[in-house]
Amino acid sequence: MQLTGAEIIIECLKEQGVDTVFGYPGGAILNVYDELYKHSDEIRHILTSHEQGASHAADGYARSTGKVGVCFATSGPGATNLVTGIATAYMDSVPMVAITCNVGVSLLGKDSFQEIDITGVTMPITKHNFIVKDVKSLADTIRRAFTIAKKGRPGPVLVDVPKDVTANKTEYEKVIAESVNECRNECSEQDIDAVVHYIKKAKRPYIFVGGGAVISEASEQLRDFVSLVQAPVCDSLMGKGAFDGTDPLYTGMLGMHGTKTSNFGVSESDLLIVIGARFSDRVIGNASKFAKKGENCSDRYRSGRNQ
């Protein structure tokens, strides 16, 4: 069936199971808002007082629900106001799709009223971004944006759509949303055997949990693992909630904002078991002195496999 670009955007959001959108309207995105209003019984729109509030709200929604957060903004200052929220989602690996609208295709690159190269602006703080200049590629682009936002290490994706693309028509066919296995990597028996070997050998193991354990919903498996190893557990700010903070084995956060127990414990451990963390500078401080008494199993194991 023939649909406008604005209609296709809303239909694609429905395909992806989106039930809530945060945003602030403006001239370039009015076609999309007109269509969104027609589907207000299926997709709830939360009007924020500022576009930055929309991106932060989409970020918070994604963190609390596990779904992809979605936000809307118009061209120019509307789009640039999303930047801080997008950057937050990027830094903390939060799935988000930001949909902005821009000036017409014929006006791009001509310093038009409220024209901003928002894809250029957000390139360093998104997993990927798109500008859709042909309505025929709009549906596939939005679907791809959601897949990228969810796949592997989650993060934000921006889709910029010129206003005339939202008005143009093309054929649309509904597609079932792609199922994405988030954060699942296969481990060989050799990998597992090596880990077990080092855990059995360790006399003072410590477990450090990061946001990856939250994203992959591995709390139950983490609890079982800790019960088997019987090692103390610390976490990063993003890892909070993955392990029970009232458990006797929990010692608090690690790093400059962490507890004395966790920092001294990791410093004295002979094996640091890291689950879903990226060793940020807030955690490790001086890298040459971090967990210095621990055996560097990863380097030894990699060198052994390469022989």
Secondary-structure blueprint:
Blueprint: E1 2-4, H1 5-15, E2 20-24, H2 30-38, E3 44-47, H3 51-65, E4 69-73, H4 77-80, H5 83-91, E5 96-102, H6 118-122, E6 128-131, H7 138-150, E7 156-162, H8 163-167, E8 169-171, H9 189-201, E9 205-209, H10 211-215, H11 219-229, E10 233-235, E11 250-253, H12 260-268, E12 271-275, H13 281-284, H14 297-306
Helix pairs in contact: 1-2, 1-7, 3-5
Over all CA atoms, what is the radius of gyration?
23 Å
CATH topology of the largest domain: Rossmann fold
Instruction: Output the structural class.
Output: alpha/beta
Which blocks of ≥5 consecutive residues have pLDDT under 50? 298-307
| Amount of beta strand | 15-25%
How would a crystallographer describe the biggest sheet? 6 strands, parallel
CATH architecture label name of the largest domain:
3-Layer(aba) Sandwich
Number of helices: 14
Element order, helices and strands?
A: EHEHEHEHHEHEHEHEHEHHEEHEHH
Mean pLDDT metric = 91
CATH superfamily of the largest domain: Thiamin diphosphate (ThDP)-binding fold, Pyr/PP domains
Q: In the residues, how many domains can be counted?
A: 2
Shape: elongated
Strand tally, please?
12
What is the terminal-to-terminal distance? 59 Å
